[in-house]
Amino acid sequence: MNISNLGPVTGIRGNPGTRLIRCWITLLSITLLAGCSDGHISFLDPQGPIARAQYEHFWFVIGMCLIVVLPVFIFTPLIAWRYRYHGKAVYKPSWAFSKVMDTLIWGVPFVVVAIMSVVLWQQTTTLDPYKPLDGPQKPLQVEVVGFDWKWLFIYPDQGIATVGRLVIPADRPISFRLTSASVMQTFFIPALGSQMDVMNRMVTRLHLKASHTGTFKGRNMQYNGRGFHKQQFDVDAVSPEAFDEFVQRVKQQGQPLGRQAYTALSRRGTSEDVARALGLHGDTVRFSRVSGALFSTIVNSAHADWAAPVARPPRAGPAATTNGDSTHPGTTMPARAIPLRQTTRATSLPQADHQHRETAQ
User: Fold this and answer.
1) Which residue in 35, 38, 122, 170 is a FRET match for 216, CA 20 to 30 A apart?
2) Cα angle: 206, vertex 50, 228; to 5 degrees
3) Could you tell me which residues come within 8 angstroms of residue 87 by beta carbon, excluding any fewer than 6 positions away?
């Protein structure tokens, strides 16, 4: 068979300009598709007042930087073109100084830096993650413990806890107290705002709020081993009525958080592994009858007294206290991730105060 009779082959080669345009269109399409998500995974899609403020702050900084950067990208090729080597090139051997150019080159960046310094200072204090959010409602207290590779969410006022899913009422401030039962981790709900480091035997704080109902993604942003990529959780912002129903349902149907459950939590694994160890299905575990002193006990790396009634605090380890919120009496200074000093002798927490207080060592 003579292939020369088949005619020219088409579709393999084409105009180089056309191929380049097709490549750029393909790359642009892939880039746009990469951003498609319904999980609100970025602060660029803010779902709360903190994330909204950070979003506006981010674009303000970008805009101010463009005042300096854009002229560089615009005038560099123009100058190179104007003074290129050719027969009609501009030649000014006696040029040495321009007061206008010198003022622009130094004055504009100075003004930009001055403005950004003032705004950044204001935003640093305004968006302080330790600063409680204003609102007519009392903040919901949530205690967060990072394990390998899962998160335990304790609702101390409700006496319940969850793993793998955080349920909060929409349009109500949430006050988080965070620690780690393992290595250093980072707690982050991008759609709601600030990320916060959590460390073993230390307590950090975070205040967030969801502006409306919805489901958002949270995750650990600090690498902590082979299961790091699976340490994610869902955040359900629901109506106040739905939150009350959730609390009652967990109290009635949740697993008791005793020795067996805590042992499963302490093992390395995801929330699905915890559910499997407790004979459950799915990736969410709900606990009822949770001691109000569990968080303090974990912070102190103590052994809980599982045989004691829920109302009785477990025996704690070092006699250090961890608080710093104005909602708890007896606080004299704000908490700022102050390490707890270990003592050689174990003591019991006071019966009337299950919350630790953070004190400077």
Assistant:
1) 122
2) 55
3) none
Q: State how far the Cα of 206 lies from the Cα of 70, in Å rounded to an integer.
A: 37
Cα–Cα distance for residue pair 52/315, rounded to 1 Å: 42
- Summarize pLDDT for 143-197 with one digit per residue, the tens: 999 999 999 999 999 999 999 999 999 999 999 999 999 999 999 999 999 999 9
Burial class (CB in 10 A: 0-12, 13-18, 19+), 121: exposed
pTM of the prediction? 0.73
DSSP-assigned letter for residue 226: T
Nearest to 257 by CA among 223, 292, 221: 292
The class of domain 140-299 in CATH terms is mainly beta
Q: What is the Cα–Cα distance from 174 to 176, expressed in whole angstroms?
A: 6
Cβ distance 157 to 141 under 8 Å? Answer: yes
Contacts of 203 (CB under 8 A, 6+ apart): 177, 178, 179, 299, 322, 324, 335, 337, 338, 356, 358
Complete DSSP assignment for 105-130? HHHHHHHHHHHHHHHHHHHHHHT-TT
> Hey, which residues does 205 pair with through a beta bridge?
177
Domain ranges within the chain, ordered by starting residue: 49-126, 140-299
